[in-house]
């Protein structure tokens, strides 16, 4: 099942911008005002996680506020969250913990159902643990507490394996898959797994998160929040990304690396993902960032009717002419990235695996 339609559009606002991984003191941000502004632009789908502390708490308070609920009925919103990941190195996929996490999220959002709940970073746990958590989410879907069941994580190939195995084991498919950093100007390897997701996996829609590779593909590089530099990209990739950003600015086209990278991610995914039409999760923890990202999306997508008026939900078709106009710039950036094109880091990495091994000894 695909929860996205003409009421929700093809863009999601991600909640990591209100996490301590990304920013310092996210509680000081005007979250309600920012969410109301996003809604005024036509964004209707929102994604967060308890792991993005305190994002789920802040978003839950915003979506429970009468200033929002009186203007935007719950039925017109798509609220997504995750479960299973506690900290950077702690996971609890046990059925009781999964159920408790979902119930807590429902309470935080003051809602009696969530549109999508994902198992968070499912590649970090055993298949047995993953299946136990997914089974619990299927049960909560039957109870009406969840509309759609999803899995999320970094490596598309691993997520595709899990999706196929879920369908074989349970006789039903996960509805939504969310992966990140695999459909952007540096890495497009998500497209290699789309056939398995939509074919043997029976997945309804695949979401592409981190179109800027967790902030790496922009001037200034990856953001550093209260928890320090969490980005797993090696020095060589960071240096080439910075070089590419400087090259884009020196082209005298009035564009930035961030804008170009977002146009590529949204445009390329729309081009290759015909079934789900490339639903992209945008960043944006402030009104200014959301405005910039929405305007960028409108430059690479166009409305069904062909005009440029209206809110973001109407922008569902790839603007082929604009995509072609950007191709030389896309190629220039990827040429600079060179050997780092389609590079992926290990998830989980060796340090995590070694730590888990010691805990079991």
Automatic annotation (TrEMBL):
<dbReference type="GO" id="GO:0005829">
    <property type="term" value="C:cytosol"/>
</dbReference>
<dbReference type="InterPro" id="IPR023210">
    <property type="entry name" value="NADP_OxRdtase_dom"/>
</dbReference>
<dbReference type="InterPro" id="IPR036812">
    <property type="entry name" value="NAD(P)_OxRdtase_dom_sf"/>
</dbReference>
<dbReference type="GO" id="GO:0045290">
    <property type="term" value="F:D-arabinose 1-dehydrogenase [NAD(P)+] activity"/>
</dbReference>
<dbReference type="GO" id="GO:0070485">
    <property type="term" value="P:dehydro-D-arabinono-1,4-lactone biosynthetic process"/>
</dbReference>
<feature type="domain" description="NADP-dependent oxidoreductase">
    <location>
        <begin position="11"/>
        <end position="300"/>
    </location>
</feature>
<dbReference type="Pfam" id="PF00248">
    <property type="entry name" value="Aldo_ket_red"/>
</dbReference>
<dbReference type="InterPro" id="IPR020471">
    <property type="entry name" value="AKR"/>
</dbReference>
<keyword id="KW-0560">Oxidoreductase</keyword>
<protein>
    <recommendedName>
        <fullName>NADP-dependent oxidoreductase domain-containing protein</fullName>
    </recommendedName>
</protein>
